[in-house]
Amino acid sequence: xxxxxxxxxxxxxxxxxxxxxxxxxxxxxxxxxxxxxxxxxxxxxxxxxxxxxxxxxxxxxxxxxxxxxxxxxxxxxxxxxxxxxxxxxxxxxxxxxxxxxxxxxxxxxxxxxxxxxxxxxxxxxxxxxxxxxxxxxxxxxxxxxxxxx
Length: 149
Prior knowledge:
With 149 residues, the protein is α/β, with parallel strands linked by helices. It folds into two domains: 58 residues, Signal recognition particle alu RNA binding heterodimer, srp9/1 (2-Layer Sandwich), CATH 3.30.720.120; 73 residues, 2,3-Dihydroxybiphenyl 1,2-Dioxygenase, domain 1, CATH 3.10.180. It is built from two helices and nine strands; from the N terminus they run βαββββαββββ. The strands form two sheets. The protein has a five-stranded mixed beta sheet with strand order 5-8-7-6-9, covered by helices on one side.
């Protein structure tokens, strides 16, 4: 058996590294290193989470995410869920920075609330927080998750 200890990093292919870096900086990631022997830019956040932006993407789908925006359900990684400390503050920061919430806020009935956003290349990110008792009632527009939504 292989023992996996944790996620080491996420690799996200992008078409425009400057645009992607600017987006992920709004989510708290900072430029760590631009690799000189590969098409990779490394970002890290204060919690030590690492993103590797693979900067050789070519958009051949007219801005559609092939895993999420077409009727056929192709296999692959559909989204990444990132834990945030405060979903209300997160939604405020998204609005302030002009990042559209593409779905949510939603609850799954398990004490968590999520919002879904897209990066500039339409990669889906779920921003998710566990709520303290009574907070759900204060979140405007909160609905139960609809997988077709």
